[in-house]
Amino acid sequence: MKPAERKDQISKQDVAAFLSDNPSIFQQHPELLELISLSDSRGTASLIERQVAMLNERLRQHKSQHSQFVQVARENEQISDNFTHVICQMIGFTNLSEFATEFPKELRNKFEIDEVSFKTAQAVSRKPSDSNGYTETLRRLINNRAVCDNRWPSTIMNLFFSTDINSAALVPMRTNSSSETLGVLALGSRDPERYTNDLGTAHLDRLGLMSGICLARLQPSSV
């Protein structure tokens, strides 16, 4: 590199460092703004025009983020309202037959789920395929948490669903987080992306708890 080029490069670096260390320099000397220009696709634009454009872009991004936050808040509010409705319905159930019929129907309608069913160990048929499917389901729910996936084995899918389901959430029905599983609630969707294994399960776990409490209340006593 020639000495003149090195001197010119160092000089630009010094100027850049000075401006970085003194961001208020243009407030102290506003006349400098009239002498500065930046090239863009329109030809030559003043620094003020470029700054205005950058501020407008940031404002657009902030508005977009705000809209996304509002949308998420509205969706969460709708989910909460739907849960409240379903829970109120469960409180009103007076027998197991009503629960078995109306509970899945309420979930399908409120949450637009393609197929909903639940199984208890007593209700699973004696066919080896069904009993094996239920055992495999319990094994996968060993952590007492709901599990979502779009690659469930056919033994599980055939046990809970009668239509073509491409993703499903399986939810243990319990009276508390450490109690025995009373049954398994299955939510199925034809959309393979609705119940993927990276989906949060807080709402589903809450649903499993509330439905488990209702199921325990309605099941005949073994005494």
From TrEMBL:
Coiled-coil parts of chain: none
Annotated Pfam families: DUF484
Leader peptide range in chain numbering: none
Protein name in UniProt: DUF484 family protein
Species per Swiss-Prot/TrEMBL record: Arenicella xantha
Species lineage: Bacteria, Pseudomonadati, Pseudomonadota, Gammaproteobacteria, Arenicellales
